[in-house]
């Protein structure tokens, strides 16, 4: 769903069933990206925004501290740092 929303033009999917994951992604692409979506029965239509990365714009990866968070698996990664992409 996210890739279709970023692409230029219309994309159509037949989805087997509506899930919370699909619902969340539809909300995200509508609110954050401004992509238009229509879901009727199991037929999903997405009008993409035609995103293009501009040459010369700053895109960097910055570490985000997860100190104090718990890993689902436990282990050493519980306090590791993950990169955050900022455009």
In short:
This protein is an alpha+beta fold and 87 residues long.
Name its key features.
87 residues, alpha+beta, 2 domains, 3-stranded antiparallel beta sheet, two-stranded antiparallel sheet, 2 helices, 22% helix, elongated
Explain this structure.
- This protein is 22% helix and 33% strand.
- The protein has 87 residues and is α+β, with helices and mostly antiparallel strands.
- It has two domains: 2-49, no CATH class; 54-87, no CATH class.
- A three-stranded antiparallel beta sheet has the order 1-3-2. Strands 4-5 form a two-stranded antiparallel ribbon.
- It is elongated.
- It starts with a helix and ends with a strand.
Distance between the termini: 20 Å
Radius of gyration: 17 Å
What proportion of the residues form beta strands (DSSP E)?
25-35%
Secondary structure category? alpha+beta
Assign a percent range to the helix content: 10-25%
Described by its quaternary structure, the protein is: single chain
- Unreliable stretches: 61-83
Overall pLDDT, averaged? 77
Q: Quick one: biggest sheet?
A: 3 strands, antiparallel
**Major sheet strand order:** 1-3-2
Question: What is the 3D shape?
Answer: elongated
Domain tally: 2
What is the H-and-E element order? HEHEEEE
Summed up, the helix count is 2
Number of strands: 5
